[in-house]
Amino acid sequence: MHPPITYILLFCLLTSLLSVIKATLNLSLPYQHPNPEVVVQEVHRRINVSIQHRRAMLDIGGSCITGNPIDDCWKCDPNWGTDRQRLADCGIGFGRYALGGKGGQYYVVTDSSDRDTVNPTPGTLRHAVLQTEPLWIVFASSMLIKLKHELIINSFKTIDGRGVNVDITGGGCITIQYVTNVIIHNIRIFNCKPSGNAMIRSSPTHVGRRGLSDGDGISISGSRNIWIDHCSLSHCTDGLIDAILGSTAITISNNYFTYHNEVMLMGHDDAYLPDKGMQVTFAFNHYGKGLVQRMPRCRHGYFHVVNNDFTEWKMYAIGGSANPTINSQGNRYIAPPDPNAKEVTKRVDANEKNWVGWNWRTEGDLMENGAFFVPSGEDLNAMYAKATSVDPKSAFLVDQLTMNAGVFGAPRDDVGTVSFGNGPITTGGGEGRNTGNHDDDDYFGMTFGSGTSAKLAPPTTLFSISLIFLVLYFNIVTINGGRFFMLLL
């Protein structure tokens, strides 16, 4: 017979773990964050700290600090080239734990060819990315890499194009499939075409036949801890960046998107429920000339869209179709001249009685040229109260925060221009709703929070929860023959 104190301690332990257990049981993927709002708060804190640091440096004559927390983390060090792997400590958002090749050796790409996809030549990018060990991949010189077929990246790799100009084009382009910890930084990706029906090596020990690829710039499937930063993407056959099949813990930041129809698709299919665990941060990206839609289009999951500059769309900017959470904060949306395309948002293949409960919110977004964002969700009134109390300063810093978007030092297709061309720019929004049933073939900045630090909880894993249950089981089965355990259930 156990003393009463045993029951009391056991009850306290179970009570303290209840929230963790409940959150874990609600997870669709083992590596999604159980409380995405905590990640959002940490992004706010990092932005506020960088903006305050920039103001302090301007007072003493400093000029390097931009207020962009990713760039300010490494770029102002004149000797950054001697410590390239510091970049892995500079991520924010859901993909902030992406290590890439941190801790591994440097691999120098010296050969721009891609002649053999089964036995790639040492010194080529293909040979580098398929290795099993962590590698930080750099380039000996500027180069244009014309891929024969899709480039399949193994886990724990960083492709770091800083200091040179690296262009990737051709067949397939970049595939990140069922791997983890990949960073792609400062690469220009364009004119990617479908290719395949060929044998392609994906690791030193595996060669397999691949079907026809879609022609994405970057395709992410079933992967986690992925960070795409400071890339320029345009003119691909399918998406510029697509993430599907349960991918999560992704940050897409400081990129420069131009000349494309369906820019980004987040989610495999509306019926693919594991994508409910998809969590993606979009920060400091520039959406520019020649874009039409999907910036991004989301099916399931949680998507934080923060401090981006949307300067052109022809249909809509942000879309969704299967009750995703859209958290839009501190962005600038400049609507096109077309009076029928002023809305930032689009609910795809859904009528209002279905999407009215979807959690789509806007806080401190700056709307120009008649742009408007249609919010929805149960907490709409509370959200409006919060949004109207926010000082939208950081939205007015979008130019500053996105000034280096895309690859460093490369010419921009629409630098210094308003992307959509003709038509006056006016400040302010409009009113409207999704009233049409168009096929899937929409701008609102803020100083976030109080600047206080939010403590990040570590990613919850099935292993840790299983261990908790195992410990509880061995302690509980001894109490009254297990009857107390059954009572709790």
What does the model show?
- With 489 residues, the chain is an alpha/beta fold.
- It is built from nine helices and 31 strands.
- The strands form five sheets. It has a ten-stranded parallel β-sheet.
- Helix 4 (125-129) links the parallel strand 1 and strand 2 (135-139).
- The longest helix has 24 residues, at 36-59.
Mean pLDDT across residues? 81
Sheet with most strands: 10 strands, parallel
Number of strands: 31
Q: Which spans of ≥5 residues are poorly predicted at pLDDT below 50? A: 18-26, 380-392, 415-489
Which descriptors would you attach to this protein?
489 residues; alpha/beta; nine-stranded parallel beta sheet; 9 helices
Write the layout of secondary structure elements.
Blueprint: H1 4-25, H2 36-59, H3 69-74, E1 105-109, H4 125-129, E2 135-139, E3 143-147, E4 151-152, E5 157-160, E6 166-171, E7 174-177, E8 180-185, E9 188-193, E10 198-203, E11 206-210, E12 218-221, E13 224-229, E14 232-234, E15 241-244, E16 248-253, E17 256-258, E18 260-262, E19 264-266, E20 279-283, E21 286-287, E22 291-293, E23 297-298, E24 302-306, E25 309-310, E26 318-320, E27 325-329, E28 332-334, E29 345-347, H5 352-355, E30 360-363, E31 366-368, H6 380-388, H7 398-401, H8 462-476, H9 483-488
In short:
This protein has helices at residues 4-25, 36-59, 69-74, 125-129, 352-355, 380-388, 398-401, 462-476, 483-488, and strands spanning 105-109, 135-139, 143-147, 151-152, 157-160, 166-171, 174-177, 180-185, 188-193, 198-203, 206-210, 218-221, 224-229, 232-234, 241-244, 248-253, 256-258, 260-262, 264-266, 279-283, 286-287, 291-293, 297-298, 302-306, 309-310, 318-320, 325-329, 332-334, 345-347, 360-363, 366-368. With 489 residues, it is an alpha/beta fold.
